[in-house]
Predict the structure.
Amino acid sequence: MADAIDTNTGTTRADRRAEAADTGPVLASDGTPLKASLRRALRAQKLRALMLVAPLLVFILVTFVAPIADMLFRSVENQIVSQTLPRTTAELQGWESDSGDLPSEDTYRALLTDLTLAVAANTHTRLGSRLNYEQSGMSSIFRQTGRNIDDVAAPYLDNFEALDPRWVEPGTLAALMTDPDYFAAARAWREENPVGPFGGGATYDQPIRLNPGIGELLPSAAAIFRDWAEYVRVENSAVVGDEEPWSLFYLRLYQDLLNVSEADLGAYDGPQSDLLLETKRMLDQFQPVSIRDRFIEVDAGWGNPDIWATIKVYSPSYTSGYFLNAVDMQLNAEGVSMQPEDERIYGILFKRTMFMSLMITGSCILLGYPIAWLLANLPMRTANLLMILVLLPFWTSLLVRTSAWKVMLQQQGVINDILVWLGVVGDESRLIMINNQFGTIVAMTHILLPFMILPLYSVMQTIPPSYLRAAKSLGATPFTAFWRVYFPQSVPGIGAGSILVFILAIGYYITPEIVGGTSGTFISNRIAYHISSSLNWGLAAALGSILLGAVLILYWAYDRIVGIDNVKLGG
Amino acid sequence: MKAASFLMTGTAMALAMTPALAQEMSTDMTIVSWGGAYQNSQNEAYVKPYLEMNPDVSVTWDESSNEAVAKLRAMNEAGNITWDLVDVVASDAIRLCDEGLALEYNPDQLLVPGDDGTPASEDFGDLIVSDCFIPQIVYSTTAAYRPDLLPEGAPAPTSICAMFDLETYPGKRTLERRPINNMEWALYCDGVAKDEIYDVLGTPEGQDRALAKLDTIKDEVVWWSAAAEPPQLLADGEIVMGSSYNGRWFSAIEEQDQPFEMLWDMQVFDLDGWIIPAGLEPAALNRVVDFVRFATDTQRLADQAAYISYGPARASSAPLVGEHAELGIAMGPHMPTDPANSENTLLYNYTFWADYRDDIDAKFQSWLVQ
Amino acid sequence: MPQDQSNAAFVEFERVQKSYDGESLVVKDLNLSMPKGEFLTMLGPSGSGKTTCLMMLAGFETATTGEIRLDGQPINNIPPHKRGIGMVFQNYALFPHMTVAENLSFPLEVRKMGKSDREAKIKRALDMVQMGDFGGRRPAQLSGGQQQRIALARALVFEPELVLMDEPLGALDKQLRETLQFEITRLAHDLGITVVYVTHDQTEALTMSDRVAVFDDGRIQQLAAPDELYESPQNSFVAQFIGENNTLAGTVKEIRNGLATVELDGGEIIDCKPVNVSEVGERTLVSIRPERVETNRERLSPDAHTLKAEVLEFIYMGDIFRTRLRVAGRDDFIVKTRNAPDQPRLKPGTQIEIGWLPEDCRALDA
């Protein structure tokens, strides 16, 4: 057969092969190398296959892979601290948290700048909530401080006013800091676009331009002035001259005046240069105050080294803190340690979740196996009817089913009533079957049972009854025949059902929430709490990642012990 | 501080200018609320009247208030805010405000004065517990019991401490599965003076003390997570007393004729109100502002009390509270704020719980599972 | 029904009936008796009740009425695993999760046999079916023929006296089937076991069996040795079911001297042997085997009745010629002739005359 004659050319394959050996690569009929044309043919095929799976692929990427990646990222992400307090965290690098001392005055000044900008951007309270997860009280420190941030450096404004009242006259600062042309244009624009009765109005669309030379003369004051002016222009629709700057500006101005030489000041001839020079000469009358003390005055928390230690520990952009919290540990200035005994909860919940999920899986096997067997062996009509009964729970709302169990199992419920009526239990000693682990296992077994029955059924359907007959004809008792012949063949169904049920159970939270009471709740209930109530998404993500890891490990173990090719979801 | 005052009102100005300019207003509005009787009361008292006045406007309800915080954060991260107005409890409003997810506002600019001319900031007074929170109603978490389930000869309970008194009032009771309110009651019944409760609760010893008190009844407590559970449990005879929102008890007692008695002692006042999500389009914002100004005026808030037994948040609304719209009973005596009911009350301390909730919750949950 | 009572009966069915739904009988009044060492085949179309009979014997179905005896003992109430009957299934029913050796070991293990005994017996059984090297394989790694050999070995390994086979070769190709047919008969005779074999393939039944029971409509239509079955079918069902057969419908005109004269529906007169017709005027189906039809007038007796026929088709089949004729108004009359030098190769369209010996033509029930 190998040398079948090619009807087109009359040559045999052997001929052609000999030919090919002479000339190099095998050629297709059109003369191109065979490999290339095969590749081309396959490429088109592959492309078509890819196009067919593309919608699903994109769907899975968007709805499954991306959220999981996002979750993993969130569980370590901690950029909010360094983004909100960039200067402060940089200053804190040099501070020893275990020294017992407060950070330097410079750190507090950096904090003032960071917080002033954060308050303007409305991000300080978010940072407070973030840090509050690590230390109680952070939230109100940041809220309180944010509310009064402009008080912190207010004494500097008062000092300037005391030195020379011109400093608080309208227009002085604008003239000193802004480009005269810009100032004039802005004012003219304001004349045409008056402020409405409730304040505000249209926004001037030109970004601020500073006075030439002022940036070199008073660098830090000019920088913060620019930030402020842009903030009020964009956020408040104000133009320069309408508003009074942050008191931080006066602190910066004071520092710049301290640093600048009189000669440089004298050489400057921009607007208000005489005011600057006079102020510089009177600077010895200035009564500077400690920004640290001012912060402590605004909120006593700033005098607590622990607060600073927490900020420092959580300065890095990525943290193990969420994961540590998720395993009942904490990260603080002293390093990693266990949570106080009375705040450990996740270890218990993880163990309980595993234990209960295994119990539920076990009960599902015990209850589901005989039903699946019946389904697979009954005549079609009866089996279909039974199948409808199995699927019936799917057609009922989860909440309804769970609530029904509540009615059934509660102390004054149907089952207890029947037991009391039968005299099995006394009226005074009604069984507690709900709001505990028992109730959760019962309700969840009921809810997840179809997920066990369906794969079991589909596997059992493929086991011909002749195996059992063969076993019996070979002399096996019905039990031996079942146990040694039928059961091993149904193991893939048990495996598939167990994996389904276990993974579903481990992540369930509605049912445990309703019937679990305190002893029947799962780790997923805490995850839900952190997602929807405490907003600690980082911790929720860490808990979720651990759960995911646990499932993967179990899956791996299952593969090693049973073999994943022994899992069958269908025929 | 002049500078400080403009900072405070920074965003509020952007918001408050809009009604004056009153340009473009969107014609649909998605309002988020709690569903059920409460949402119905809002619909009857101000949404329907507003729609009658503005027939071109349509309102979509979204019953997502219990997960509003998480959803708003998710919407914010996705950069697509689909809600226009969200009804939340005050503590959630504080959280949303802290997260920058809700719009800060200036009460006197945004809200209309009371019908007696009181500026809004005074009319609502202390109830504006956050810069973003627009109060609607005062409700309370309070206790109720079933006289027929009490042991014979036991006096009718008059104090919240009956909850902790297993000797006189044996049987199961139900409390909410969270530390808030329970910790306060525990300390109060452990002998802590009312005005010191939060000071004590701020210390680890105080927290332990509260948990120790709760420990004495732990075995007899059924913990609820949905407010509908306690009336059901009490009706089924599963418990002898429990805590829930006063509106839930009201509807069980008055609308369903359940044989419950209220135990107003040490009811904990809490607030519910609107927040406007940050980042709305101008047209949507204009519409929402227009609606909120209407929905929070004196008469509208008083009207709401005809449908549910929650107190209007405006002082000026109280005298206008009338009868229940269907039952025809005077609603005054069922208000948590009624003098007879509010002899001994506690105001939920929002700043305290904003700070300590995470820690105390961890302790509380850990205590629960052990 | 012929009853073979000559030897001591080993397997007996007595007045056995089976109904699944209480309304209709699948097996109607079955009486059967077979001696030890016999190879008996139950042959019939599907739904004829043959498999049900086998299952009743194996114990997987219970007889609705009647008694089944094995070696003289009633077994109606003995569960299948205590009957000690070996069985081979159509789909082999080898346990897929066990190796070949484990499959064979299974019946020995449940009989609590020691390990060394087991190994010896497994080896012997495997050698017996020439599969000695395959003990470590899984069934899925074997071909269909190999699997059936293993199934056979497994049914034999515990040395049952009676082995039931339920269409064991049905899923195999023709060549393999023939090899295995031969092997099964050889093994059965060598081992002296009694075999009840179910098939719907008549060739299989004829080549393998000592006796064949032809089933139809829940009854045994004929129980006889293969040659008797072929040569002397007792009724038209058997005649048509076994081998190729030409049938012509007609009415009995006369019965005389063991010969019946039948007038076909077209008016032609033929002679035949009355098998189950007894009265003149009775309707009958006349059956003639294609190879017994004579096309050469000279080989027939002078007074024999002949029929006119027209050749429709001539098929050269190597060893034989197969000719299709139009006879007595029917287009499907087949004649088979040996490929011999003196045999004419008939051209379509040719008019010929055909006939047969009266004893080759059997007048059966209509």
Remarks:
- Residues 1-12 of chain A have pLDDT under 50 and may be disordered.
- Residues 81-148+299-319 of chain A form one domain.
- Chain A touches chain B through 63 residues (CB under 8 Å).
